[in-house]
Amino acid sequence: DELCLFNPYIKMAPGQDIYDECTIDDSDLVRINEFKHLHSLGLSGLDLTCGAILRMQILNQLDTLKLKRVDERHIHDLLNALPRYKRLKEVWLIAEDLSDVHLEPLTKMANLETLRLERANITTQSFTYFARMKHLKHLYVDDKFSRSERARLLKIVPDCHFVPVLDYTYWQLHPGDHLLGTKSTDYKAELR
Q1: Are 156 and 131 in contact (CB under 8 A)?
Q2: Whole-number mean pLDDT of the chain?
Q3: CA contacts within 13 A on the Cβ side of 120
Q4: Rounded CA Rg of the chain
Q5: Ordered DSSP codes for the chain
Q6: Are 74 and 101 within 8 A, CB to CB?
Q7: Confidence of residue 134 (pLDDT cuts 50, 70, 90)
Q8: What is the pLDDT of residues 64-109, one digit of tens each?
Q9: Bridge partners of 140?
Q10: How far apart are CA 146 and CA 148, in angstroms?
């Protein structure tokens, strides 16, 4: 079973994340930890701390962990702990203010097959870390690299996807007219 407390399909403009996230804090994690059949968990929000996430016993049973905008001050502590969780095969890190050096702990994950890094501050230096992820099959990164850089990365991870920072595909799923303070349904036009 899966529980994701943010909408992974609506890629909101930076600063508009409230429109695709549930508001939760550390106290809510106690209840989530009781869901014994979860295999995929997505958490988001600035009110979540890495320490509280790491205290969740449910991490031991997860195949997928998705994190968006959680406790950027201590994200390195959480990343350092991830290799302990042998079942984890997929990790999403969205808007976590990551740089290349933050990827080092992920190279130690025994079964990491899918990695999604969105709105990360990675550079071509990250390619060496991706090359050290022995089981990495699927990689999703922001589409900010040049054509030659993309070609280099595709040699390291052939199933690499370069995703736009903003993707309007699913914005029609947005639940209200208050997006960006407009009543328009032409969201692309509103952002131009």
Answers
A1: yes
A2: 86
A3: 28
A4: 17
A5: -EEESB-SS-BPPTT-GGGGB----HHHHHHHTT-TT-SEEEEE-TT--HHHHHT-GGGGG-SEEEEES--GGGHHHHHHHGGG-TT--EEEEESS---GGGGGGGGG-TT--EEEEES----TTHHHHHHH-TT--EEEEES-S-HHHHHHHHHH-TEEEEE-SSB-TTGGG-S-TTGGG---S-HHHHH-
A6: no
A7: very high
A8: 999 998 887 889 999 999 999 999 999 999 989 899 999 999 999 9
A9: 116, 161
A10: 5
Which amino acid is located at 94 in the chain? I
Could you give the CA distance from residue 24 to residue 44 in angstroms, rounded to a whole number? 8
48, 26 Cβ separation under 8 angstroms: yes
Residue carrying the six token digits 């508001």 = 23
Q: Which single residue is written with the structure tokens 């130690």? A: 108
The partner residues of 160 in beta bridges, in order of sequence, read 139
- Going 120 to 7 to 169 to 17, the CA torsion angle's sign is negative
Inter-residue contact 57 to 79 (CB < 8 Å): no
**Both structure tokens of 135:** 């089981």
